[in-house]
Backbone:
């Protein structure tokens, strides 16, 4: 948002006249706060980090482009959520995510236990190149949603029920058997691409089955970050487009600060999940290090 736009907004909405110099000073201080926040030191270990992107219209080189705004939402050892940073790029791609991973490491992150992603090709390699011990888990809800896009509306409920038998299986072997059963069923025959997309994603699906229910509930979906994205979209939906990356970054940062100040309690079921993490990951967890 430009200085003139802010000045007009304050006059129209609040009947307040503010000088351009004052607005410039305030917006400059916001950008300083963004820079400080974006470069702040991070914790050594995050048990779970959700990675996702939302699209924002930004003017760049004379044209309005649909840019990706990347967010990393972590769950700390104390169970509270924390946004690790904001990154912007024209296209969501594995090379850019590698840059993000390196930045997180440079800010102090040494280990991520589980990374939950939306199935972007090459993303798992970008994560494990920097955090080789990280388990990369495909978001099951994204996979379900992608599967149901092949279905007619009247079939979706029945197909979803059949697919639940796969991700609710107790072991990878049982899940693989349920997938083959689905593929051979009438739904698998009618919607053949569904089994194919599950097979292509299988290496990032099967880590899910190694975990007990306490952890599965936490990593089952990227709904946590999708909810955050949705709330950010509410703030920016009436903007049309931003005049540049800096204007978009400022508003998204302010929106995040407003949203995250409410995050004062651990996520539901975290104590049980953390006990399981301690058993699963042994020396990688220091239970007394939570802040």
Residues:
């Amino acid at each position: 948002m430009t200085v003139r736009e802010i000045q007009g907004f304050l006059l129209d909405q609040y009947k307040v006249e503010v000088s351009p110099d004052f607005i410039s000073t305030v917006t400059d201080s916001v950008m300083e706060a963004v820079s400080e926040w974006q470069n702040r030191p991070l914790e050594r270990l995050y048990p779970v980090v959700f990675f996702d992107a939302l699209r924002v219209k930004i003017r760049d080189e004379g044209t309005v482009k649909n840019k990706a705004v990347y967010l990393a939402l972590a769950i700390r050892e104390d169970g509270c959520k924390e946004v690790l940073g904001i990154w912007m790029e024209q296209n969501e791609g594995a090379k850019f995510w590698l840059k993000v991973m390196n930045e997180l490491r440079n800010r102090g992150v040494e280990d991520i236990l589980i990374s939950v992603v939306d199935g972007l090709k090459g993303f798992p390699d970008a994560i494990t190149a920097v955090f080789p011990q990280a388990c990369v888990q495909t978001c099951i809800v994204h996979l379900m949603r992608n599967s149901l896009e092949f279905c007619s509306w009247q079939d979706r409920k029945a197909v979803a029920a059949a697919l639940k038998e796969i991700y609710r299986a107790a072991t990878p072997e049982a899940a693989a058997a349920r997938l083959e059963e689905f593929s051979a069923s009438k739904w698998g025959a009618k919607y053949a691409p569904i089994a194919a997309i599950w097979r292509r994603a299988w290496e990032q699906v099967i880590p899910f089955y190694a975990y007990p229910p306490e952890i599965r509930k936490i990593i089952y979906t990227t709904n946590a970050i999708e909810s955050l994205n949705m709330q950010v979209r509410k703030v920016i939906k009436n903007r049309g487009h931003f005049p540049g990356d800096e204007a978009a970054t400022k508003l998204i940062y302010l929106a995040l600060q407003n949203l995250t100040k409410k995050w004062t309690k651990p996520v539901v079921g975290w104590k049980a999940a953390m006990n399981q993490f301690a058993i699963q990951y042994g020396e990688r967890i220091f239970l007394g290090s939570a802040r």
